[in-house]
Amino acid sequence: MQGVKQKALELLTGGKADRVLGWRRGETFYDPTPGVFASAEEVERDFVFDAFCGANLSKYLIALDRAEGVTAVFLKPCDSYSLVQLIKEHRIHREKVYIVGVACEGMCGYDALMKAGIEGVLSFEEEGDALKVHTLYGDTVIARKDALLSKCEHCKSKRIVTYDELLGEQGDEVADSGRFDEVARLEKMTPEDRFAFWQNELSRCIRCNACRNVCPACSCEKCVFDNPDSGIRNKAAADSFEENMFHIIRAFHVASRCTDCGECTRVCPQRIPLHLLNRKFIKDINELYGEYQAGADFDTRPALLNFQTGDCEPSIVHVRGGERA
Amino acid sequence: MSVKTDWKPTIVAFCCNWCSYAGADLSGTNRLQYPANVKIIRIPCSCRLNPMFVLRAFQRGADGVILCGCHPGDCHYTTGNYYARRRMTLLFSMLDYLGIERDRTRVEWVSAAEGAKFAATMNEFVATVTALGENRRLEDLRCKA
Ligand code: SF4
Ligand code: SF4
Ligand code: FES
Prior knowledge:
The complex is a heterodimer of chains A (325) and B (145). Chain A is α/β, with parallel strands linked by helices and 325 residues long.
């Protein structure tokens, strides 16, 4: 979408914003990186917006909230949920951001290209609904829908929750995203099989903390995992406990605040399906406490910061578990 | 599973200061028996129970973890146990999802006057966990002697 770069220039030169948060050219074609642009020259030189700009920019606004003046930001629909959640949590002041909503048809990822057997990629061009990919071995074409990031395969919403202006059309929530199908499949397995499944996944974790660092919901200044006494600062070579501990706590502490933006899974270098942990919490919350989508509005309370006197007892886990055993 | 007949599980019971901790006391003064392998940790309110404490207890050798608090509606701080209830529900569900035996965790509401309920709950929970055997799935070998 060409309009995005143009808009960035316009906002800076027109004085609507003191800086623009967008995407900067990465080392390769598939990893544009979040970047802050203070001048039109910088935008001209480095700004990109293309099919590989999957990164969610919301989290960077926490730090920029302390800077003077207004930051303009480009948000795709799912990114806007993250921002609303952060505003709700008083981490970002709404008046300090100028939001340009960008309609989204799904972002692309390198994994999908590899899966399709496309190797040695040098560059690409967007041609309508397809990507024309230039590789060492010649050119090839892949449909955009076959090149999606895993997080975009089960997109929950095309609605941009809040914005000051829009590029493209406002969309709707996706009714049948199928994003809980995989969770449901796991729930139906025996505990032994589930245990084996998760051991296989979690034992690959190298504790790089990328999932933690990228998460908009996970933005404490001091993290329990950085405590030298926590005993879980490093990759445990011999013990699965650390992995379980890290992953349960990582997912738990964002439970009911996680917007399901999918960034954690996107950045994991070990391809661990972290979204299956987050979505388990979301699914449970929906089933036990009523439908709740974090970041969908400014005033409802997250499920874990709320209660009903008639809530179910924790023993419901046994009851539900019994049914599926 | 090879469970030795003389094996006794280690149970960690997190008890709210205002109710079940006093309930435990009462069961003691009434000479009601509950197994000595139940280790009580006093917390100021059931909602003080950070999910990490539960995991940490398993790491340090617990075979079962139980949380006891004031009955819903009776929390000394009015609403603490309502929050704890949601948290533990989601945490236990997650443990189950990861394939960890769901009978290793439990929540029970025990008032200061319910000494008998406290003893009965502990006896029951110890029996359940004994039947399950040692905690293997959430253990930390480095913490084992
Ligand atoms: S846990 Fe993952 S999906 Fe949820 S908000 Fe954080 S990065 Fe996004
Ligand atoms: S990003 Fe992946 S490898 Fe890194 S800490 Fe998270 S789960 Fe582990
Ligand atoms: S004071 Fe007992 S549960 Fe809150």
